Amino acid sequence: MAEKNIPTLYDWAGGMPVFEKLMVVFYRKVLSDELLAPVFKHMSPEHQLHVAHFIAEVFGGPQIYSSSEGSHFKMIQKHLGRHLTEQHRKRWVQLLIESADELELPEDPEFRSAFVAYIEWGTRIAVLNSRETENNEDVDVPMPKWGWGETKGPFIP
Ligand code: HEM
């Protein structure tokens, strides 16, 4: 397959409606989870939409989060001083994967490998940032970009 025809993870997942629905289902689970509910009880009404836009952008979607809602710097800022634990992180990952299954996001090994790799990376960064009280990043640090990685996808049956 010519490189220019390789879809982004965003397109392969089904575009923005899929990311927005994913976060609705995910935060419903989060708020009824006894470990995570206290962490998110003060989240803003826009939170789930912002996270949907953030992840969509990382996966090659439109620059909605970084152009009008926040920046990578601001996202880091939101995690500072929250003292997230490995237990929080693992539950977050588990609930997100369950939500992806429920919404029938693509199940092919290539997509799921790239998806989980980002979630694993992003949540570990969030935990590290949550131990800091100051943001040591550059204010204009670019958004992360995530592609197919080692699988060089997408899945071709
Ligand atoms: C890939 C991993 C993650 C991404 C991409 C991410 C993304 C974000 C973004 C974009 C915001 C800002 C939302 C806004 O502008 O309103 C945010 C805030 C926040 N995140 Fe994360 N996050 C991740 C992992 C985690 C984990 C593992 C936890 C805890 C278990 C967590 C807890 C929070 C909390 C508590 C806030 C602030 C909510 C509020 O009170 O408004 N995040 N995150």
Automatic annotation (TrEMBL):
One of its GO terms (molecular function) is heme binding. Keywords: Heme, Iron, Metal-binding, Transport. It comes from the Bacteria. It comes from Mucilaginibacter frigoritolerans. The keyword Transport applies. The keyword Secreted does not apply. Heme binds at residue 50. CDD domains: TrHb2_O-like. The lineage of its organism: Bacteria, Pseudomonadati, Bacteroidota, Sphingobacteriia, Sphingobacteriales. InterPro entries: Globin-like_sf (IPR009050), Globin/Proto (IPR012292), Hemoglobin_trunc (IPR001486). This is Hemoglobin.
